[in-house]
Every structure is written in structure tokens, then in C-alpha cells.
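stage 2 :: seqdesign
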């Protein structure tokens, strides 16, 4: 399987230098990450929302080794909030945050991440939007869920992400599927050991459907994070069976992947949110996109052969 190999490469400084230096890399990265600065991303936000799409914004960057870097990540999101305020989009443009960027892995990281993320959640609420806490590897999840629970005391609209390939997730979904919750379900994009996660695609797909059913039959707001046509169809059917209206759940897909499907779902009246990342520290994000879907790797390889 190529996925684990690519994920290992995402942690390699040598591979980072090699891929970053490849002449074709910027062209390919631009498919998934359409800008490095807020000024570059604002026109993208305006274009997508004009087409009837919604967004969740991610300022990429994960290699945080000092509290100062974590504070800089917080400030980058606060700058984003300021620009979103000017656009007056409300919940049509929310934000996704990885707590590792906010210092979660540092000494005293749980308290540090909570202290850094709270002002962003407060600022988002002040302009009528919200924040979703992204899921990372399984060792970080207890901290993420505790921070999520703490934030929801004052900002109940704060969302979180759960990953279908983890054994624990069905239990997490039952706990989270309560009134007012916002839960994004994804398959999972980190290399996890067999002790905690399903390893085969068919097992992960089955788990995804079981968990999505829990969310649809619950009282919260499910967010279907998938590009898989079969899972999208199943999601629509589960929503119908649960008696959900079109505005009582949503689909989420990555910028640059199945863009025609984004528009098709929106045209049918579905809420379709595009996960849109920007920033200069793109390497880890980019490599996980390659690991998630072999077609992305083939796209990169073909580009390298024809343009490099």
C-alpha cells in the first residue's frame, strides 16, 4: 500500500527538500492549496461562495516546536477572522484548526492549545461563524475532545472531527451526536497501528457507514467528509431515512478534488462546504492528500514526468 509510504515521507526532512525543490511541485500544490497569504485566498473565498459553495478555512502548518510559533499560528487565524469579517459571510466561511499548530504537543501543551484556540473561537463567534477542531493522530484525541468540550460551554457551535478508521470512533460518535453538536466524519489520514485502527479499505468503509448512521439518527449536525461517490449516495439515503432536511447536514470535500461534484451537490440544494487550505508550510498537508487517494499521487507523478 502506498499510503503508509507517503505518510512516512511526510515526516522526512530529506523528502521535504526533494519535493519542495522539484520544478513541478508548485503547479501541483496549487491544485490543493490555492494561496499562501490571506490576500491571495480572499478572491478564492469570494469565487467559491458566489458559486453557492461554503468553506472551511485551514491555515496550514504543523511543525510547531516553540510557544512563540504556536502564538504566531493563533495570530494567523485572527488575521483570517478580520478578513472574513469584511466579507460578511457568516457560517458560509468557517475555520478548521489543528491543535498541534496551537502548541498541543509542547510541554504543558493541552493548556497552551486551549489558551491559544479560545481567542480564535471567540473572534469567530463575534463575526457570526465558528471553528471546527480537526482530528490528528490517535494519541492527541483525548486532549482534543476535552478542549472541544470546554469550548462548547461558551461556544456550543464549536465542531470537531472524528475518524472512521479508529476503533474508538463509534463510541465517540454516540457521545457526540447530541443536540447542537457539529461533527465532521472522515475516513482518517494518519498512519495508525493495527491495535487502534482498521487497516483495510473495506473495513474502514463499513465503519464509516455505521458511524454516519449514528450521526444521522442523533440530534446533532453531521458533516460528511468524503469524496467517495458510494458514501455520498449512502449519506443521502441515511439522511432521508432519518427525516433530515437538506439544511440539517452537509457534505465537505477538499479544494481541488472533484470540483464538479461540489457544484452538482450545491445545485441540488445540498450544503456543500469546501475545505480550503492556504499558507506557506504546505508540505505535511500536501503529502496527506497524496496518501489519501492514489489518483492524487498519479496526478503528481504524471505532472513530474511531463513538466519536470
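stage 2 :: out
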Amino acid at each position: 500500500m502506498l499510503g503508509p509510504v507517503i505518510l512516512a515521507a511526510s515526516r522526512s526532512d530529506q523528502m521535504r527538500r526533494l519535493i519542495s525543490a522539484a520544478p513541478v511541485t508548485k503547479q501541483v500544490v496549487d491544485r490543493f492549496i490555492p494561496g499562501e497569504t490571506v490576500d491571495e485566498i480572499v478572491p478564492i473565498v469570494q469565487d467559491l461562495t458566489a458559486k453557492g459553495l461554503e468553506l472551511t478555512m485551514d491555515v496550514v502548518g504543523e511543525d510547531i516546536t516553540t510557544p512563540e510559533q504556536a502564538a504566531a499560528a493563533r495570530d494567523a487565524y485572527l488575521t483570517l477572522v478580520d478578513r472574513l469579517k469584511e466579507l460578511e459571510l457568516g457560517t458560509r466561511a468557517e475555520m478548521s484548526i489543528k491543535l498541534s499548530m496551537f502548541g498541543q504537543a509542547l510541554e504543558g501543551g493541552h493548556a497552551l492549545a486551549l489558551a491559544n484556540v479560545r481567542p480564535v473561537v471567540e473572534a469567530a463567534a463575534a463575526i457570526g461563524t465558528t471553528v471546527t477542531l480537526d482530528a490528528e493522530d490517535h494519541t492527541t484525541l483525548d486532549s482534543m475532545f476535552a478542549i472541544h468540550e470546554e469550548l462548547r460551554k461558551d461556544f456550543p457551535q464549536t465542531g470537531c472531527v472524528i475518524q472512521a478508521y479508529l476503533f474508538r470512533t463509534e463510541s465517540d460518535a454516540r457521545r457526540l451526536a447530541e443536540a447542537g453538536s457539529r461533527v465532521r466524519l472522515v475516513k482518517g489520514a494518519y498512519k495508525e497501528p493495527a491495535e487502534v485502527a482498521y487497516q483495510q479499505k473495506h473495513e474502514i468503509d463499513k465503519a464509516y457507514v455505521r458511524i454516519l448512521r449514528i450521526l444521522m439518527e442523533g440530534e446533532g449536525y453531521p458533516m460528511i467528509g468524503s469524496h467517495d461517490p458510494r458514501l455520498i449516495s449512502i449519506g443521502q439515503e441515511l439522511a432521508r431515512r432519518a427525516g433530515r432536511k437538506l439544511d440539517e447536514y452537509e457534505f465537505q470535500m477538499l479544494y481541488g478534488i472533484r470540483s464538479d461534484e461540489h457544484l452538482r451537490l450545491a445545485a441540488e440544494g445540498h450544503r456543500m462546504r469546501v475545505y480550503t487550505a492556504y499558507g506557506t508550510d504546505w508540505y505535511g498537508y500536501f503529502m496527506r492528500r497524496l496518501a489519501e487517494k492514489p489518483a492524487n499521487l498519479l496526478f503528481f507523478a504524471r505532472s513530474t514526468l511531463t513538466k519536470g
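stage 3 :: structure notes
- Confidence is low (pLDDT under 50) at residues 303-308.
- The longest strand covers residues 272-278.
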